[in-house]
Amino acid sequence: MEQVLLIEDDDRIRLSLTLGLEDEGYTVRGTATAEEGLREQRRSPADTVLVDLMLPGVDGYECIRQLRARDDVPIVVVSARDDTHDIVAALEAGADDYLVKPVAVKELSARLRALRRRARASSVAAVTALVFGDLEIRPEAGEVAVRGEPVAVTRTEFRLLCELAEHPGRVLSRAQLLERVWEYAYGDERLVDVHIGRLRQKIEDDPAAPRHLVTVRGMGYKLQR
Amino acid sequence: MRRPGLRTRVAAAFAAGAFALSASMAALSYGFTSQALMAGRERSALRSAYLDAGVVHAGLATERPDIPGILRTLNTGSTRRALLHRDGRWYARAADAGLTDAIPPGLRGLVEQGRLGMQRVDTDSGPAVVVGVPLPSSSGFYVIDSMRELDQTLSTLALVLTLVAASTTAAGAGFGWYLTRRVLRPLDTVTAAAREITAGDLSARLDPATEPDLERLTTSFNEMVDQLSTRLERDRRFAADVSHELRSPLQTLSAATSVLDRHRTRLDDRAATAVTLLSDEVARFQRLVTDLLELARDDQPAQRAPVDVAELAREECQARGLPADLVRVDGAGTWPVDRRRFTQILGNLLDNADRHGGGATAVRLGQTPDAFVLEVDDEGPGVRPEDRTAIFDRFVRGRAASARGDSDGTGLGLALVARHANAHGGRVTVADRPGGGARFRVEVPRTEP
Residue ranges of the HAMP domain (chain B) (predicted)? Predict the structure, then answer.
């Protein structure tokens, strides 16, 4: 049974989402504050975390950062804010996906499944190692290394990197990446952009002038030596 | 007629001032100079005539005077002609013959009365002054002194003065033009700041120190911008609050009804019907709120990027259970549009065709020389000509839908289409489809206007 941690300060939303997700087959633990949520996650880690942005005390962004600092648990933001700034800030803090309220329980469940699926998919990809100059990707082991030094990436980042690595030198559009990594028929392309940005911070010597993970203007991204 | 601009008016005023000043100065100097030159010239003519008259008088004193010989001895140069009137006969040097007509009768009368006379005349060879000197024994000595040289000098002077006046006038106009530019230059910074603010940069302010004379303008301008940005910020925060306050309860409603829906089989018929009503209404309310919040968003221009609109159109059709081959593409299938907005344009037009037009029958993606064109056809009753503008207003529903009591739509779909088309600098129109039904046409210009 999949464990979901739901950090949401609105009691009614927390309760209704808990009921809805339980109907979809998840085990849900809910907390009203980020502090409680972080404590709960330390005590017994859930498979996925759902987090609201406007929380009393420690806010959602900080909560995401602290969760991300610990491990690569998939984090989905469920927030009433649909401002570009808020969405990008949450993704930059380390969230894997962003949903704007009201979100249907079925949709939420589909997002969670997609996140879990790609996490598994990457761990069974039967390729030994993909090498791009000083960048090395081992899909089987779920490892990334730059000049032999292992780099910690989240599962979503890893899945994104693998998609690009499986088509070396070929441009993949944002829409293609959204579909392959997040399983969105169409969605918010900022998801891709922010994740690419986060990956560059980790694997590029100069994230502002990337050598491996390059943008092809008007088309998308590609991975090169 | 349009009133001429400030710069033109100031330049014209400067030109008029400069012209009045320089023209009167020129006229005055011409008057004084010509008078002085003329007087001097007359004095010298008189003096020479006197001297010559003395010589002639002495010559005539002899027994049988050789008058032409006497006249020839006179040193007259090339500008003076000497004539002698004696005993009713005119004497002149051979070269000067035929000049007697030039002597004015009035002057002759004066000389014959024994008085000295001088008069300006016009001769065939230009202006001249005629001096008449009475001599004893009823003779009159006349000298025609040509003033052509002086006349030429004066016309040169007049020309020079005219040129000076003209160039002073032009310089005045130029100075006025330059001056207004200098004076208006601080206003350029005001214009630039206003433009930045219009473009959305509310941090633009003017520095009152740069132009102390315009301090009142800059201060009130800055106050206006402060007020404006405060108001905008308040509106933005209000919109964000409204968004949050509406979305949160909707989240609960949505999740709770989905639970009810799932457990419908355990409910009796009446309760199950109520649950169906509830979940339909919640879904509609959700769409309404989402559309309203979308409309309430501030008018930001579309963020254009290449989008595979052909693929997008097929996806939107399939998502509504329509065959993907409804989509016909003419020309490039990738357009520079705002993906989010264009997706809503497509979706709302397809939904509209479904609700009011019996379903879309064709989706065409075409191009004109300066625009991308999306057309969505249906085979419904069409839109009456008098309704063709109003249907793009908010909360306007099709007549057929109202008659059916169908309240599935939000009444905002086409308003959103119009909003998104406008954000691209384009527009949406509706016409009759040949063969019946309506044809919605969205035109998006290739480049931002």
Answer: 181-233
